[in-house]
Structures are given as structure tokens and as C-alpha cells.
Amino acid sequence: MTINTLAKGAWHREQMASFRKMEKVIVAMQDPDMGVKMRNQRLLITVIPHAMTGRDIIDWLIQKYNICEEEALHVGAMLVRYGYVYPLKEPRSLVLRPDESPYRFQVSQPPLHPPAIYLAKKNIRKQGELMEYEKERYSVLHKRINHTWDFVVMQAREQLRASKQRRKADRIVLECQEQAYWLINRPPVRPLLLYSVVLDYIETCRRALGRNRVKSSICLEGFVKYSEQYLNHDPIMQGCLPSNPWISDDTAHWTMNAEVVPSPTRLRVERWSFSFMELLNDSMGRREFMTYLEKEFSAENLCFWQACEDVRHGENSRIIEKVEDIYKNFLAPGAARWVNIDSKTMDKTLHGIRHPHRFVMDDAQMHIYFLMKKDSYPRYLKSDLYKNMLAKAVVPQETKKSVFPFMRRQRHASPSPAQAVAPEDGQAKGAGQAGTNSAAGSQA
Amino acid sequence: MCDQTFLAATFGPCDSCGKASPLMNIYIKNDAINYCSFCMEVMACQGLQSGETLASLKKESDSLKKKLEEERGKLNDIELHQVAEKVEMLGALSIKTKRLLKGHGNKVLCMDWCKDKRRLVSSSQDGKVIVWDAFTLNKEHGVTLPCTWVMACAYAPSGCAVACGGLDNKCSVFPLSLDKNENLSAKKKAVAMHTNYVSGCTFTNSDMQLLTSSGDGTCALWDVESGQLLQSFHGHTADVLSLDLAPSETGNTFVSGGSDKKANVWDMRSGQNIQSFESHESDINCVKYYPSGDAFASASDDSTCRFYDLRADREVAVYQKDSVIFGASTVDFSLSGRLLFAGYNDYTINVWDVLKGTRVSVLFGHENRVSRVRVSPDGTALCSASWDNTLRIWA
């Protein structure tokens, strides 16, 4: 749905799909064999034919769509709210009661297809003389709302008949208003824009035909593996230790998993082995990896990668100075932390540095990234450094659920990340720490 | 400025004849063309005269589309739910409302979590943007924007700023200050300028760049410090309603979904449309990447959510049910990607099993349509924003 349709108060295009679906439900409900049980309902002293009880509607929905009572009540409430079914008792209260209250199907349905009716009216009146785009719309609409077409034509005829009886002046005004309204709200059909759009589409298609695709069995297997691997890390599915802060009001889980902790949790350290990106995304993991690389005398690779990231995501105004720094420290012959890139990439990068832009280091950065990923990272995972970290890692004890559930813990505030900003430093990284801090104003 | 509306929007010298007149601004193959209406007609006629009629172009595009579908189908050797047969069924989930955030005076349209896992920012129809500590229910900052319908808001990765935009056609960045006397509105910085409403915004990997999507049919990448347009993305033929950044290691792509029923994947560096998916039957209201970055999900007015695999280049699952009648407006994945949370216009949130394609649970509670659902950064909770003026935290 776009805001434009809402703001103009125009016909709710987004709801067409929903109305169509609701109509399907209504049609199914009205089926003489499989639909809702219809009976004569007693209302005070009158007997109303072809009515149904609220309870019957609910039961039918439960059975037909295999849903629970709560959902059936919800769906039924929508049917009543949108006028497809109306209550015989207390007609102003549009609710669905799951009891003996009588309901009926709405015969003259709420105005659903204004443009269809307008076009049908015009068609009838001018005996088929519609403008080209109107003819197209007419047939498109006809196809779409085929099953209610008779109703639409009937409504059109009704409206025409009613309008004939109005005063001529009013009629003309009304017609003009209607025509103007639909003129404004018709979809734009400009041949030129269609031209550029179609050209664009053809190009996108051509490019798409040339791309490499992977077999479904391989891709889909990937999703299964990913979900399995991360299952224990998904708190909504498996819970988290010691407890989910939102449920227990205890922020221990966040304290234990803060950015910088003396001993990280086991799950966290395990996660570093899932992928190189997981290791780099965790600041503690990155620090550990750096320590390892220092032992291997290849720490300049990670430093270089970080500096390139800085160029890519930093301010426009500092790109030139940052690229110069990188050249001085990593790429210049005899540089203090010279990185080993293949000659082709090095040449291309050095050439690009003459006119530095945001992506000038991309190729070199990619080369170093994959070097670390294929070489240093697997060795890190097999190293003593990592294995010790894993062995030392903490597995928090699960907090037993409180015996007295109404004794709620105090919910402590945490220092806001905004606090850590130094105004001159545009790249300040907030601490983002959440922890108990009773001095900072707690709220029970 | 980014523009792809169908009406003349600027005035100036025509690129072709040089006369000053109302200009039509369109893009052909990523090149901007600003012609007066007369020169535009001439160009169209010339294009059509050179052997291509609009009809023949359309025929070509239709046949290409068919070929593309065939190519995609060739590697389709198995369906997702078949692969998922060996996976264990999910047990019953017990998800309840744990926090109710009251404070907005009007429909809440958007929200975003902070990286600290407990703070969030939300924006509403009356122009108010509030930063909450959702854990304690404290409201920490509040700004009132001069425009209504603030449809997009985002928290900066550092936690030190928020971006928001909407009907004012702009996206502004506010640094968050803890000085109570400071007027946040005064420090506002307008970064993005579109020619129609801003429907979505997100920071890229740092506070320095902002990605926006707009009702003018384009997406754009901006430098926050200078407000400069770094890259614009053209290809949608109607309003772009949503976007999401890819969590991939090379971090260069994002996906957008729009009223033209298409979901497009873009390369941020070149501005090119890399992949396009068109299988929804109505507007795509929201798009969100799968945690691994190899796929994404979309929510649409046709009451379905769909799952698209980027490596196989096709739709691999449709999440729908006959009893789900109303359009879906928002989706998000749980941390492992096994669950898909979708918010609907019938006030509910449906929880789907991504692999098996079945519905696991329904969350009732909101009293009006759900405009946004987002899982917290560490996956411990789900936040939903609704037109009933509240936000709910579920866990």
C-alpha cells in the first residue's frame, strides 16, 4: 500500500486483494451443501428465514480452515466489520458473538468496485462507446471480478435509474464530478514512459539470463544447515542462559555478553567458528584473532583490512587523507606494515590511488580478506589460543524460575550509548554496554 | 535530487533544444534525460520509428521473460519443504507480550532497534519520534518533526544518532544528546532529499552513510556529513516501499520492494539492478534478508509472504493460508532464520516455519494493523509497532 492512495482518500487498491479473498470465504459459506447451516431464526415474534447463528459461523470456520477458536473469532469479526455478514439483534453493534445470536449475509454488498460501476454505467448509457483506455480497464475489471459482474451491472443499472429521477442540474454536476474523479485517478498510460521502462526491463532480463545459478538442492540444503547450526543461539526458539532478560527482568545475559568481558560465554566463542564474518563482527573475536596474527607475523593483513573498511564506510571528506595513510603504511615499497598483494592487484590499486575514491581499495581489500579467510582463519581455529579460549569459556547456569511470580525484579537502567560521544570525533563508537547500574536511576 | 514521477517536476533549459520550459525528467539506461515535452515526444517518435514499435519491444521483453523463467526452472531440482522433511517439527512456541510501550499519540509507523539490544527508536503519524529504553520503559529522547507520517526511522550503528523521514520528502539525522536542556530539533540535519515521501531508511555499516527508499520510485545512498548523493538506484516503476541491507561479507548489496510488485537486488557501488523478482500479486510492503544473506523474504498486500533464494535466483517458498485474508505489511527473521514473523493488516502477527512452510503460531494483542516487526539484535525479543499507538515487546 502506498501513502498516496491513503492520503488522497482514493479507492483502497491495497484492499482489493483482501476483499476478493473475503468474497471467496463468503461464497464458500453460502454453499448449499458445504456451507454454514442456515435456518429460520426467531427474532422476538418474527421468524427470519435464511439466517445463521454466530456459533454456527465460528464452528464452520474452525472446521473449514483448520484453525483454533480464537482465530475463527478473529476472522469472523472481520467479516462482520466489513459488512459481509450483519447481526439481526443489535444491528449497530458489529461484533460476532459465538452464541445463538442470528446473522445474515449482506445482499447489497458495500461499495467495492466504484470504477467498475462507473464504467458499466457509461457502457450501458453510451452503448459500448468507451475511450480506448477505458475499454481496456473495463475488460480487465470484467475478468477480475467476473463472479460479481452481474451484481456490478445491476448496481450500475440501479444507479442510472435512480439518477434519471434526480433533478437534471444535480445529475449533470454529479456526472461531471464522477468523470473528473476517475480522470484524475486513472492509472497513467503514457507511451513514452512505457518505452523507457520496457527498455530497462529488457536490459535487466538480458543481464539476468547471463548470470550463474546454483542448483536448488544445494542452496536449500544450505538453509537447513544454517538453521541447525544457529538453533542453540536463537533465544526465541531455545531460550538463553541464564535467562531471557525480557522474561525474567534479569539483565545477567546482557552483562555476560557485553562487548568486553574477562571471560566470554561458550556459545559466543563457538560462534566464532561458524564463519570468518562472525569472528570479525565480534570485537572480542577480532581482538583474539589479531593476537594470533601477531604471533604469526601477519597482523598487518587485519590492520589493512580494517583501514580499508574505514575508507569504504567513512565520511566523504576524509577519503583522500585515509587513502594516503593506507598507502604510506601498507602499500608503499618499504612500508612499515607492507601487505603482500599480487602484482596485478597492486598495480591496479596504485593506479587508482592517484584519483582516490571510496572504492579504490576494494580489490586489494578483497584479496587480503580472502587470504585471511582461506589461510589464517582455519589455522586460528585449530590453534591452542582458540582451543584454550573455548575451554575457559563460561556456560551460565540457568536461573530457576522465581517461586513467587508476582515478586518482580527491579529493572535497572543502563548507560546510553549516546553518552560515549566526544563531539569533535565524528566516528565515535558508543560503548553500547548494557549492565546493571543502580545509580543511574532504576525503575520498578 | 531523485525523481521518477510521471509529471513534470522541474523547470529549466531543455537538454535538447535549450529553451527554458517545464521539464520532464526520466532515466533511460541509467542516464538522466531532462527534455521539454515537445522534444520528449520527438525522441519517442524517433525511437519508435527506428524499426521498433512499442508493441515489438513488448514482445521482445515478454519472450525474454519467458526465457528467464525457463533458465531459472532448469536448476530447480527440489522444493524447500521437501528438503525440510528431515528437519524436526517445531514444538509449540510460547511467545507473550512482555512490555507494552505507550506514549505515542497516534499510529506508530516504524521502529528500529539499537545495537545495545534494549533501546529502540519509533516514529508515528503525528510527527513524533521517541527513543525508548524498552527494558525499563523509559522514554529517553523525543523529537517532534514538522511533518506528519514519519514512515521511516533508523538507529545509527554507534547508538549516537537516529535518522527519520516521511511525508516531508526528506530524511534527517539527529545526534542524540543526553543534555536534557538541549533541543534535539535544533541539531537536525537534512541528509536525503527526494521528490516524494521517504518510505524507508537505514544506516549502512557506519554512521556516515544513509540509504533511503522513496515514493518517487528510487533508492539513494547519501553521505551524512555533507548531504551529498553518492549513488541513486533506478529501476522500480512505482513507489519503493521498503529496503534492507545485505549482511554479506563483502557488504555491497541491498534489496528493495515496491508497489510495482517487484523486489530488486542492487549493487551499491555501481547502482545496477543485479537481480529482480516478480511473483507477488500486489504491492510488496516489506523486504528482509535471511541472516546468512543468501536469501530474503517479502511481505505483500496479497496476504502472502514469500522467500527468495539469491543463488538459485528464484522464489522457493510462499507462506500463505486461506484464513489469512489481509495484507502483510512487515516481516523479520528470528536469529537462526528458522522462524519468520509477519505483521498483518488484520492486527495479528503470524509466525511461520521458514523451512517447512507451515504456520507455527499466531500472536494476538494489537488493536489495529501491525506496521512493523523487528527482532532484537541478539534475538531475545520481537518488537511490533502498530496503528493502535503502541509498541509491544514479545518474548
UniProtKB/TrEMBL annotation, chain A:
The lineage of its organism: Eukaryota, Metazoa, Chordata, Craniata, Vertebrata. This is Regulator of G-protein signaling 11. CDD domains: DEP_RGS7-like (cd04450), GGL (cd00068). Keywords: Signal transduction inhibitor. Residues 405-444 are annotated as: Disordered. Signal peptide: none annotated. Residues 434-444 have a biased composition (Polar residues). GO terms for molecular function: GTPase activator activity. SMART domains: DEP, G_gamma, GGL, RGS. GO terms for cellular component: cytoplasm; neuron projection; plasma membrane. It comes from the Eukaryota. Residues 275-390 form the RGS domain. One of its GO terms (biological process) is negative regulation of signal transduction. Residues 32-122 form the DEP domain. SUPFAM superfamilies: Regulator of G-protein signaling, RGS (SSF48097), Transducin (heterotrimeric G protein), gamma chain (SSF48670), Winged helix' DNA-binding domain (SSF46785). It comes from Dicentrarchus labrax.
TrEMBL record, chain B:
It comes from the Eukaryota. It holds the Pfam family WD40_Gbeta. SMART domains: WD40. Signal peptide: none annotated. WD repeats lie at residues 101-133, 191-232, 233-276, 277-318, 330-362, 363-395. PROSITE patterns: WD_REPEATS_1, WD_REPEATS_2, WD_REPEATS_REGION. Residues 54-81 form a coiled coil. Keywords: Coiled coil, Repeat, Transducer, WD repeat. InterPro entries: G-protein_beta_1-5, WD40/YVTN_repeat-like_dom_sf, WD40_G-protein_beta-like, WD40_PAC1, WD40_repeat_CS, WD40_repeat_dom_sf, WD40_rpt. One of its GO terms (biological process) is signal transduction. Belongs to the WD repeat G protein beta family. May interact with RGS9; this interaction stabilizes both proteins and increases RGS9 GTPase-activating protein (GAP) activity, hence accelerating the deactivation of D(2) dopamine receptor-mediated signaling. This is Guanine nucleotide binding protein (G protein), beta 5b. It comes from Dicentrarchus labrax. The lineage of its organism: Eukaryota, Metazoa, Chordata, Craniata, Vertebrata. The gene is gnb5b.
